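I hope you will forgive my troubling you with a question about protein structure. I should value your view on which stretches of the chain appear to form regular backbone elements. Here, with my thanks, is the record as I have it:
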Amino acid sequence: MHYQSYRELNPDSERKRDLIKVIGEGRITVQPDYANVTLGASTENKELRLAQEENAKIISDIKKALNKMGITDKQIQTKDYFIYPQYDYVEGKQEFRTYKVEHLLQIRELQIESTGLVVDTAVQHGANTISGLKFEISNYDQYYKKAMSLAVINAYEKAETIADTLKVQLDKTPTLIVESPKQEGGPIPLETTAFVKSAATTPIQPGTMEITSKVNAEYEFH
């Protein structure tokens, strides 16, 4: 239960205060307005130089194609770059197979409606892996403040309900309000997957995000 009613000793006034302590909650449901996509190319070759050259060409082709779509260089940045050997195990022995090169790009601040086309364009130009698709809200703080306001109202309503039940008079001004640590509604992730080329544009459905706020409040009653 979130509702508590008890007496507390106030060291400043050396008198007992009749307190009601509650937790207020506020929630706002919002539709994301932009997306960040992380995708790239994974190549393998027994010669490291060839694996790197093939990978570099794919990444270059992806960037050029995205630029033609209006995606600026500032929106495209290297997220990760890996080089590691691949091995097979034959009769318990480790045998070198190939070098694997993986270069991941993060494409930032995409309009939701263009995200599917961006993904498909990258795939058509050699992208063969995606490690993240995140939907976000550009004015998150504005919505969080609304959720916090609802949390404060909810706290008062809870305290008022307790006071009415106890048939006591509630002081409308709280003696204390403490914001609980902010928990970002956060990006909505898409599970890591490998893309398969298709004729139709990949459908991207962002859904909605729930932004929540909690406050701890104390009210005196008489």
The CA atoms of residues 125 and 192 lie 19 Å apart. DSSP finds three helices and nine strands in the chain. Residues 34-138 form a domain with the Alpha-Beta Plaits fold (CATH 3.30.70.2970). Confidence is low (pLDDT under 50) at residues 185-199.
